[in-house]
Amino acid sequence: MIGDFFASPLALLLLPLPLAALLLLPPAVGEEGGAMRVPETIAARLAAGIGARVAGRSRLGLAGLLWIALVLALAGPQRLEPSAALPVSGRDLVLVLDLSGSMDRKDFEIDGTPARRLDAVKKVAAAFVRGRTGDRIGLVIFAERAFFAAPPTFDTESVARTIEAATIGIAGRSTAIGEGLGLGLKRLAKSSAPSRVVILLSDGANNAGTVGPRDVALLARDLGIRVHTIALGANELGMAGDDPDAVDAATLRRVAELSGGTAFRVRSTGDLEAVSASLDAMEANRGRAAAAQVFRTYWVYPAVAALLLALALAGSDAGLLTRAGLAQARGPVVGRRMRRRSTGSAPDRVGGSEAVPAGAPGTARPDRHREAA
Fold it and tell me: What are the boundaries of the region Disordered (predicted)?
């Protein structure tokens, strides 16, 4: 129960530590002496000492409050905030996007304006991801090499922004379809989600990497992971003469068939949006996850209080030192005044004449011979 109010409740055990120190280390008691009368100046200084003891009690109180504030800040006071349950689909989905050099080709349109293939994919894929609330979505980017740009997460907004920031050339300019698909399967193989899906988009043919797409598709089938493929581009390999940017739609179709997925053919931005809608319709059973426990922390308030108390304690120490210095400086002055009053300032006279010290210049010395006689 106390853990709901403090992040580190065991720190509260430090609260009685100063009190225990006072009990185990009692202050020394001085010897009592008899009563005596003292001069007024000394009595005034003794009275100042009584004021110092009163100030010492105030400092002790400040130190106690400072300790309490520090311990509370260390314990980390917190409050459980109400939070709604998150929708979940039970699906882990990984997008595998081709960023090879052919994606720079301008044969698509966005709002009637010619656009690169990559720009059209960014727009549609980012919108698709933002609409997949409840899915854990990851992102693999591949060209000559493949890497995870975003691990599977419920934060679809961050994945969408990563898609929008993708740039051609960061992974090379060739097309390693097998490498990209294999990396996506590697992450999903560790997932325990009831539904695991890969969406593979490419606009070329596999011409890099050490593993072929069909071999990876067989692995996906063994793992129970469905792979949906999207063949992007106007021309297909083997049907477009010598077009170096033709897409290997046949291989992508075979990958989808082997893994139990669906193959899509995209030649325009409209086709891409239609595929996005079709994939969005492939819903798993939706449920609701348990509400997340979100705590609001308040440790900063006792920390600020401790800082203010420390400053007040430092100011109190400075004031005591100043008063002690003034009292110490005033003592010798009062003593000198008392000595002057008791001895007087007029020169000593003997018999109405000034007393001259023996051996002073101008005094007659006794005759040694007469002194000897």
Answer: 332-373
Question: How far apart, in whole angstroms, are the C-alpha atoms of residue 235 and residue 277?
Answer: 23
Residues making up the chain, counted from first to last: 373
Closest by alpha carbon to 173, among 246, 87, 102? 102
**Domain 87-288 classified CATH 3.40.50.410?**
yes
Phi, psi dihedral angles at 181 (to 5 degrees): -65, -40
For the stretch 76-89, pLDDT in tens is 999 887 665 555 65
Domain parsing of the chain, residue ranges: 1-17+41-83+293-313, 87-288
With a cut of 90, say whether residue 199 has pLDDT above it: yes
CA dist., res. 307 & res. 185, Å (int): 53
Residue with tokens 């999207």: 230
| C-alpha closest to that of 237 among 249, 222, 226, 228 | 249
Q: Are strands 195-202 and 91-98 parallel, antiparallel or unpaired?
A: parallel
Q: Kindly write down the DSSP assignment for every residue of 16-36, as one continuous string.
A: THHHHHHHHSPPP-PPP----
Tokens coding 112: 């009637």
Place of tokens 């920390």: 303
Please tell me whether residue 76 adopts helix, strand or coil conformation: coil
